[in-house]
């Protein structure tokens, strides 16, 4: 039997009000489809990559030469960052939700010895990895990090800056200070915070490696580039010990972005076939972030989150998160146990909110690139209408007034 030729794939327009991917800007989508057909070594493509590298240094707030993008999504950048971790390396992982939990799995796969990997290939229990679990809904504090590093004296420590599973901000200064004090090299998953947080990574010298993603705070398309940044200390360590990866190797990947032997060069050299279309749209997204201004963006997110939080609370929800791009909440008491049903009903109408992906089940409402009053009002109205359909007597109009009072 021949495979059928399916009709052309049509994807509807939705309100992407989740933890990410964000509500992609038309400009970024248009930049993906408008470039001419070109190859990955065409001079304007290479120039675009150099410009992206320079814009990324500004967005990360860093002088790190090794600042560029890893093709793929957040996990691709994280895989690159963690490629420095070798079997038997002692590392402390701080876990307070879904994503730091997957970071921990990723690190166990790299730190496991051959025997440990063979004993449990998909979930190796690496004895050199120490996991500190912080309950869902709570943040990793500087004191927790300090105590763990003092006790275990590892080579590495890793944490998510903003844990998107539970919507919690973890204490980056405390993490960096403890790493510095104990001579530990810090690695940070900044997938959710970059482009939203008021963050300058050079303020945190205890952290040597940072990895983010395209489609959350920086508002680029998924599967384009995951921003990463590595300090000289990280690169020196990697030079000494190597990594068992060609494609995600931070030193080798950097060559295509015009970073060779620790120096900026005028144009990149081949590492793999980059996409001119990905480069063009990523470039446009970075331009947008810088046009809006990093401090101004952080402030707009703070204001919008506060307003949306007040509006949702006025309809009986209880918010447990403290991120400024995402609200994680418990529905009004009568809907306890029906969170997934509620989210699915919203998603069926292209109002794309999310449940939490690990226990306990909560509802997540995100505002990436949804900061205008009419966009926030639309979220409140649709959320209120869904509550009404689930027989909760919420007043969506009053909630919109509450929203506006805070904007
Ligand atoms: C979304 C997310 C990831 C995974 O990113 P992908 O782009 O889906 O690969 C990892 N860590 C955190 C904190 C995230 O929010």
Automatic annotation (TrEMBL):
It comes from Jiella endophytica. The modification N6-(pyridoxal phosphate)lysine is found at residue 216. Its cofactor is pyridoxal 5'-phosphate. GO terms for biological process: glycine biosynthetic process, by transamination of glyoxylate. One of its GO terms (molecular function) is L-serine-pyruvate transaminase activity. Keywords: Aminotransferase, Pyridoxal phosphate, Transferase. InterPro entries: PyrdxlP-dep_Trfase (IPR015424), PyrdxlP-dep_Trfase_major (IPR015421), PyrdxlP-dep_Trfase_small (IPR015422), SP_NH2Trfase/AEP_transaminase (IPR024169). This is Aminotransferase class V-fold PLP-dependent enzyme.
């Amino acid at each position: 039997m021949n495979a059928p030729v399916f009709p052309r794939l049509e994807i509807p327009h939705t309100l992407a009000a989740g933890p990410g991917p964000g509500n992609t800007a038309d400009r970024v989508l248009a930049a993906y489809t408008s470039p001419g057909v070109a190859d990955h070594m065409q001079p304007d493509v290479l120039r675009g990559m150099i410009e992206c590298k320079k814009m990324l240094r500004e967005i990360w707030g860093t002088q790190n030469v090794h600042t560029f993008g890893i093709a793929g999504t957040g996990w691709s950048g994280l895989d690159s960052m963690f490629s420095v971790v070798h079997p038997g390396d002692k590392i402390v992982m701080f876990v307070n939700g879904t994503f730091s939990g997957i970071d921990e799995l990723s690190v166990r796969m790299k730190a496991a010895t051959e025997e440990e990997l063979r004993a449990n290939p998909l979930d190796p229990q690496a004895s050199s990895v120490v996991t500190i679990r912080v309950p869902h809904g709570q943040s990793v504090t500087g004191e927790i990090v300090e105590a763990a590093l003092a006790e275990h004296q590892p080579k590495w420590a890793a944490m998510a800056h903003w844990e998107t599973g539970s919507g919690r901000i973890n204490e980056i200064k405390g993490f960096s200070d403890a790493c510095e004090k104990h001579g530990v090299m810090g690695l940070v998953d900044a997938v959710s915070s970059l482009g939203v947080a008021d963050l300058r990574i050079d303020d945190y010298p205890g952290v040597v490696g940072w990895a983010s993603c395209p489609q959350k705070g920086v508002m680029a398309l998924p599967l384009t580039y995951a921003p990463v940044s590595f300090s000289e200390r990280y690169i020196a360590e990697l030079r000494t010990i190597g990594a068992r990866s060609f494609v995600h190797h931070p030193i080798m990947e950097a060559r295509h972005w015009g970073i060779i032997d620790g120096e900026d060069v005028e144009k990149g050299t081949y590492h793999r076939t980059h996409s001119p279309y990905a480069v063009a749209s990523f470039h446009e997204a970075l331009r947008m972030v810088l046009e809006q201004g990093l401090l101004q963006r952080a402030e707009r997110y703070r204001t919008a989150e506060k307003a949306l939080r007040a509006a949702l609370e006025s309809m009986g929800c209880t918010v447990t998160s403290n991120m400024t791009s995402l609200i994680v909440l418990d529905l009004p008491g009568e809907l306890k146990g029906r969170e997934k049903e509620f989210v699915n009903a919203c998603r069926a109408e292209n109002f794309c909110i999310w449940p939490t992906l690990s226990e306990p089940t909560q509802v997540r409402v995100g505002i990436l690139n949804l900061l205008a009053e009419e966009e926030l009002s639309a979220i409140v109205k649709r959320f209120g209408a869904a509550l009404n359909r689930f027989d909760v007597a919420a007043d969506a109009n009053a909630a919109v007034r509450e929203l506006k009072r805070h904007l």
